[in-house]
Amino acid sequence: MLTLSDITVRYGERQVLHRVDVTVARGELLAVLGANGCGKSTLLRAAAGLQPMEEGSVTVDGKGRGPLDIAVVFQHIHLVRRRTVLDNVCAGALGRLPLRASLVPALFSRELREEAMACLDRVGLADRAHDRAGSLSGGQQQRVAVARALCQRPRVVLADEPVSALDPAASEQVLALLAELAHVEQLAVLAVLHQPSLAARHADRIVGLRDGRVVLDGPPHSNVDSLYQPAAMEAVS
Ligand SMILES: Nc1ncnc2c1ncn2[C@@H]1O[C@H](COP(=O)(O)OP(=O)(O)OP(=O)(O)O)[C@@H](O)[C@H]1O
Ligand SMILES: [Mg+2]
Questions:
Q1: At 14, which CATH number?
Q2: Whose C-alpha in 139, 178, 194, 236 is 20 to 30 A from the C-alpha of 125?
Q3: What is the best residue among 38, 74, 158, 161 to mutate for testing ligand 1's pocket, by most ligand atoms within 8 Å of CB?
């Protein structure tokens, strides 16, 4: 399981995360909700090791996070558009390959290509393996990004607004896929979402952030209205 403890992040004078504790169990899809600027992306970057923290720890199954334990899926998909879908998925394994093989796609081994095909099959896109990545729709590209994350063989998948560029049907598909990966592959999956209704339909649990603090941790159908209400106006004299 993924355990984030006491995560405290400051940008200059401004503290944007205040001792945040979040856990995600194996086999669980956790949705993180909250208004713009409440610290969701900062928390996800901290979990991924991409964000300096003032305090706090990130562990996977009780040990310090290893370089390949956590795979990240971003809102902007970052596929190499002119390469094939399959090459993009193989790239998920870069961190665990010898350097030479990782730099030259022609040297991707048959075993790796087979594993990447299995990952693509997992997201329902095996038939597009040899197309250029740039020729797929946004929703399909996001599913390729999920396949690439799987090819890393992670124990944890973090996704920051993975469906915000997708239409409603594609959003449902990607969320259902993330839930299935959590449940079937027993991964810990944390997804930042902006639509509470999607979280209610697909997540196993939700965490709500407000001004850098956890203010809600409960079942997917919890009332989330308070997360999005503006702070009470200070009296102005
Ligand atoms: N690199 C940075 N330097 C300074 N302040 C930052 C930086 N990144 C984020 N912030 C500030 O930290 C706070 C939290 O930002 P963050 O991006 O984590 O919010 P978020 O919840 O992901 O918002 P959104 O829903 O808009 O994506 C915001 O007030 C933001 O202005
Ligand atoms: Mg964000």
A1: 3.40.50.300
A2: 194
A3: 38
Q: Report if residue 234 sits inside a domain.
A: no
Same domain, 144 and 160: no
pTM for this model (two decimals): 0.92
Q: Which ligand gives the minimal distance to the CA of 38?
A: 1
For the Cβ of 42 lying below 6 angstroms from any atom of ligand 1, the answer is: yes
Residue 229 belongs to a domain: no
pLDDT tens digit sequence for 8-21? 999 999 999 999 99
Report residue 138: phi and psi, to 5°: -55, -45
Nearest one of 13, 14, 1, 2 to 212, comparing CA atoms:
14
210 touches ligand 1 (CB under 6 Å):
no
Specify the residue with its C-alpha closest to ligand 1, atom 27: 36
